[in-house]
Amino acid sequence: MVDGVYYYRPWTMDNGLPISDSTLPTKDQEYNPFVKIAQASNFQGSNPYLCGIMSKHGRILVAMSGGVDSSVAAVMLHEQGYEVIGLTMKTWDYASSGGSSKETGCCSLDSINDARALAVGYGFPHYILDIRSEFGDFVIDNFVDEYLAGRTPNPCVLCNTHIKWEALLKRADKLDCEFIATGHYANIRSQDNGRYVISKGKDENKDQSYVLWGVSQKNLSRTKFPLGSFSKPEIRQMAMDMGQVELAGKSESYEICFVPDNDYRAFLRHKVEDLEARVAGGNFVLTDGTIVGKHQGYPFYTIGQRKGLGIALGHPMFVTNINPDTNTVVLGTADELERKEAWVKNLNLIKYENIFEPMEAVTKIRYKDAGTQSTIVQMGEHMKVDFHHTVSGIAPGQSAVFYEGNDLLGGGFLI
Questions:
Q1: Which of 343, 67, 87, 302 is nearest to 208 (CA)?
Q2: 195 in a domain, yes or no?
Q3: Which pLDDT tens digit goes with each residue over 200-237?
Q4: Considering 307, 329, 337, 406, which has the largest number of Cβ atoms within 10 A of its Cβ?
């Protein structure tokens, strides 16, 4: 400490701005022990020089959003003896997404600063990494394209599969980190057959294994989920015990991170020029083809939707099908939404290398779905799912995820 200021490794940027790969130190570079990171009055860790000592578990890169889950995960690993490096990824820009209210969520300046302050307080390095281009080119573009194709996208799965894990491991390699960690509520273990298996987290209300089905075996082999054996209330209590009262009380966000105000229709209008002019005025039809009204444009509807249709037929009606080629939205009764079979594409299997023989599984067709007993069998590049009783609202583009007990068998996208 010099003049009331702690000095430490050069892995925290004083200006708090996003950094690029070119500014990350490589594993061959020496550490400069004299870089200002925090005023002594703000320091909350047990030893500002602790990370300078060889850790007993190795170096780990932790994704930190600024929320309570990833923050507690980082501190937990730090206390367990890992040499923690925090990384906050700037994935999107609120203004360019058409937001009208104050920026909130994992990419807000407040969240980034919260993650940074916690890392500084506990004496471990922290980075802010700008991956807006990577994220936008894949996740956001896919989100728009799927709605324009009449499907309901699953952006969190795509982000985990193609962006978040790849971005983390790329930077982990540059920083000589053996592992990465996230604040997901899930568990992971290795099996005798050499495969890494994800299983449900302890907290059934917070279990996030559904959005992790796309992560590859290679990436899972270097992944840790510190929160898997804890409930959300226990994590909040840990934050309180750390003295992080404001962090412990942070509200949860269930919105898509890049969709301002949770209004995907406004987001599509903002992203696609003249969208309304191109799609407004299509027909609402019944399953027999009878035209019963006009709609605002097929991308603004999803399978299973009942509210906000803007049409009254004397009894509840639901969106049962969407045809983008004819700009037609099909309406039907609740019974007409029900199915006993589904086909799934873009498979990624977790527990077993393949499922060529029929097996019993519980299949979830949406995140908050309780799951349905089913028989699944792999047929070429697809999975055939026979539900043991009817399910309602199978939406093409959403994920179908298969479980054997608490273990994640794998998943794919509904056709």
A1: 67
A2: no
A3: 999 999 999 999 999 999 999 999 999 999 999 999 99
A4: 329
CA distance to 95, 174, 220, per residue, from 144 (Å):
17, 33, 29
Q: Which domain holds residue 399?
A: 339-414
Residue 218 included in any domain: no
Provide the phi-psi class of 267: left if phi over 0, else alpha when psi is between -120 and 50, else beta: alpha
Of 51, 107, 159, 177, which one is the catalytic site residue?
159
Tell me which of 51, 107, 156, 257 is the catalytic residue: 257
Specify whether 289 is located in the same domain as 405: no
For residue 215, is it within any domain? Answer: no
Q: Is 177 a catalytic residue?
A: no
Q: With 0-12 CB in 10 A as exposed, 13-18 as middle and 19+ as buried, what is 10?
A: middle
Cα gap 171→21, rounded to integer Å: 8
| Cβ–Cβ under 8 Å, residues 161 and 220 | no
User: Residue 411 corresponds to which tokens in the numbers above?
Assistant: 């998943």
List pLDDT tens digits, range 21-61.
545 555 444 333 223 333 323 333 333 333 444 456 899 99
d(CA 37, CA 120): 6
Residue type at 26? T
* Number of structural domains in the chain: 3
Tokens of 26: 């490589």
Q: What angle do CA 177, 181, 183 make, to 5 degrees?
A: 160
Do residues 8 and 123 lie in contact, with contact meaning Cβ atoms separated by under 8 Å?
yes
Given 300, 333, 366, the domain boundary residue is 333
198 to each of 94, 103, 138, 180, 344, how far by Cα in Å?
32, 33, 25, 15, 20
The answer to whether 156 is a known catalytic residue is no
Q: Is residue 84 located within the same domain as residue 171?
A: yes
On whether the pTM is more than 0.70, the answer is: yes
